[in-house]
Amino acid sequence: MTPPRSPAGRATPRQQRSIAMRERLLSEAVRLLEEHPGTRPTTQQIADNADVSIGTVYRYFASMDPLIEELRSNAVRDISADLAAGVGAALGQEPVDSMVTVVEALTSSFERHTPILSVTMTASDEARLWPDAEGPLLALARVIPARLRPDLTGRELDDLVFLTMGATASLCLRIALFRPPDADRDALVGVAARMLLAAFTK
Predict the structure, then answer these.
(1) Which key words are in the record (predicted)?
(2) Does pTM top 0.90 for this prediction?
């Protein structure tokens, strides 16, 4: 049955409360992930922190799996938007500066979403995250390589973008989530940028 809607097509107060409660539960899950990095919260912990009954949690999420998956999907959407903004900002820059801009944008985005990423992936399974983000960005991701390698055919350019997008995600994830405590973050960003730029050199 379709929930009732107001004459102007706006959500009813009941729908608004439902949306607000769902967001509240998701926010509490993120807060618990931030407070206890790498530890997956339980539905009871979320209920306690949100000051609601466990039944309320189950009304929106049958278990922690769909809740964590929704957080992951939201993170992927945000990361995709951040990367798109980074690529856009890099378009008018010199090659090395443009790569630093892209690597910095993606690394920073991964860092902001570390609480969620840390419970959904490890250093070896970033491939699970990236396909969701990669598809919508392929056309934009071709812009910088196409400018640097005008000699490539369309197929060759697509192959290069396919490989470098994966390499970019892997490098940025390692910097954001797995770098040693004594590592120089900015230096790592610069090294990653130069490594990627080398892939576009004849």
Answers:
(1) DNA-binding, Transcription, Transcription regulation
(2) no
pLDDT digits (tens, 9 = 90+) for 146-164: 888 999 999 999 899 888 8
Which residue, among 62, 63, 86, has the nearest Cα to 143 in the 3D structure? 86
CB atoms within 10 A of CB 163: 11
**pLDDT 10s digits, 71-112:** 988 988 898 899 889 988 998 899 999 999 999 999 999 999
Phi, psi (5° rounding) for residue 50? Answer: -85, -5
Q: Do 99 and 129 sit in the same domain of this protein?
A: yes
Integer Cα distance of 56 and 36 in angstroms: 23
Q: How far apart are CA 33 and CA 46, in angstroms?
A: 11
Domain CATH for 157: 1.10.357
CATH number at residue 36: 1.10.10.60
- Structure tokens belonging to residue 30: 């993120």
Can you list the pairs that 32-40 forms with residues at least 24 positions away whose Cβ atoms lie under 8 Å?
33/115, 33/116, 33/118, 33/119, 34/115, 37/114, 37/115, 37/118, 38/118, 38/119, 39/119, 40/64, 40/68, 40/119
Under a CB-based contact definition with an 8 Å cutoff, are residues 5 and 11 in contact? yes
